Amino acid sequence: MSTSTSTTSTSPDVDVLITGAGPCGLVLAIGLARNGVSFRLIDKADEAFQGSRGKGLQPRTLEIFSDLGALEGLLQAGVAPYPDTRVYHDDGVGYDDRPFMEKGNANPSEPFQGPLMSPQFITEGVLRATLAQAGSGGGHRPDYGHELVSFEQDPSGVTAKVLVTATGEQQVVRARYLVGADGGRSVVRHQLGIDFPGISLDVRGLVADLVIQGEPITRDVWHTWKTLVGPVSLCPLACTSLWQLQTVAAPGEDISLPVLNELMRERLGRQDIVATEVRWASIYNMSARLASKYREGRVFIAGDAAHVHPPTGGQGLNTSVQDAYNLGWKLAAVIRGSAPETLLDTYEGERRPIAAAMIELAVGYLKEAKEGGNRKRGREAQQLDLGYPESPLSARLGYREGKLGAGNRAPEAPCRHKGGEATTLFKLFRGPHWTLLGFDVEGSQVEVPKGSQNLHIYRVLPEGGNSDAVADLVDDGGHIRTGYALAAGDWVLIRPDGYIATVVSSQEFETLISYLRTWTVC
User: What are residue 299's DSSP bridge partners?
Assistant: First the structure.
C-alpha cells in the first residue's frame, strides 16, 4: 500500500526524502539545500554510477548548472563542445564530416550556443561536489546502498521503509514529502500505481565505455559507420581518454571484452580498432514512455521515473534535470511557508507537456537514423525555447503579441550596477529568490514591495538615460531592453527558476502585486 487514511502526526525526520541519486535527484537535493530545506537522498546502488550513459548537456541545462554553482566544476573537468560527426562510406574508407549540431549566432541573451559533452559519471561527480557545498551547513551527500522498500502517506507526511543493503537493517524515515527520482523501473511509481504508457521501439541498444589500444582513429570527430545490422559509432568522451561505443545489440550478445572486439571487427571490417578494457557497458531495450501523472498526494515522481526516451537527441538527462529544478524551488517555498500548497499543483502541469514534446522529438530522430538519415540537431534540441505559457504561474496580463512574455525563459543580459561594476542578469537571478526588474520607471507612481528576502528588486536605467535618476542597474548596450522587448515603465517578474512570471506596465502594477500575494509571501 502506498496511501493511507491514517492521521499520523509523527514529527518528520526530514522535509523531503529523495530516492535516486542520479542527476535528477542530485539537482533536486542541491535546490533544497540552498533553500535551507532538510532532506535525505538515498540510492539502492552500492556506489555512484560509473558510466557515460547521458553525455550531452543542452544549453538550458548549462544555464541551470550555472545557477546552481555546478558549471565551474564541469568546465574545470574539461567538458567540451560536441565534435563533428564523421560518417564513413560503404567502402569503410571514404567519409563525410558533418556538424553534429546547428550552431547559433552568439548573442547576449543566450550564453551557450550548443551542447557540451560530459560523461554522466563526470556530471554526477560535479553535482555531488556541488551538493557537498550547498546550503549554510554543507556536508550533504547521498546515502548509497539504501533501498526504498515501501511507503505510506497520510495527510501530514510520508512514512518510508528503507533497507540498508550491506547490513540488512531496515530504517523507518518520516518525511513531509517523498520524491521518486529512481529511474525507469521506479519503485515509487509502481507503488503509487501510476500508469506508464508508451511504446517499445523494437531496438536493443548497446553502449560501452572502452579503452582503445593506440590511436587507430582520431579523437577530433565522432566516428560513425552504417552497417547491415545498424549504425556503429565510436565517440571520444570529453574529460577522459575513453571511447563510447554505440550500436545495436545482437540477440544473445553479451558485453564482455572479447565479444565487443569481435563485434567491431565483424561490423566495421577493421582489425586495427582493438579495445583493451571495458570500463562500463549496458544492453537496453529502447522505449518511449510517459507517466499518466506526476503526483499522488505528498509523493512526486521526476526524471526517468516519469518519462523515458530513446537516446537520440540527448533529451532524457536534460529533461530530468529540469524536472528537478522546477520541483525543487516549489517544494522549498511551500515547506518554508513562503507559498501556498497549490504551488505544487503546477509541477505536473508545467513539466509533463515538456516531456511529451521531448519524447516525440527523440523518437523522430531515431526514426530518421533507422532510415539512414543523419540530420543535424537543431535549436529544437537545446530546450531554450521551451516554456510554460499556459501555466497558472504565467500571468499574461499585457498584450505582447510576438514579444517575450509570461512563461518564456528569461534571457541573459550583460549590464552594470549603478556604481559601475559589471554584472549580468543571470548573476542577479542566481539563488532561490524571485526577481523584479523595473525598466526606466523613474517617476512611476507605484509602491514597490520592500523587506522580503524572497524578492530582489532592481530599477533599470536605460542606455543613455538620466544618470541622476534613481536606479540600481544601467542597461549599457541596451541588452535588457532588446532582450525583453521593454518600454519605459515596464516591470518584469522573474521566477526562481528563470522563467518570466509576468510583464506589466506601470498602469498595471497592481495586478503584479496581486500576483505576488497569490503565489508568494512578499
Answer: 178, 296
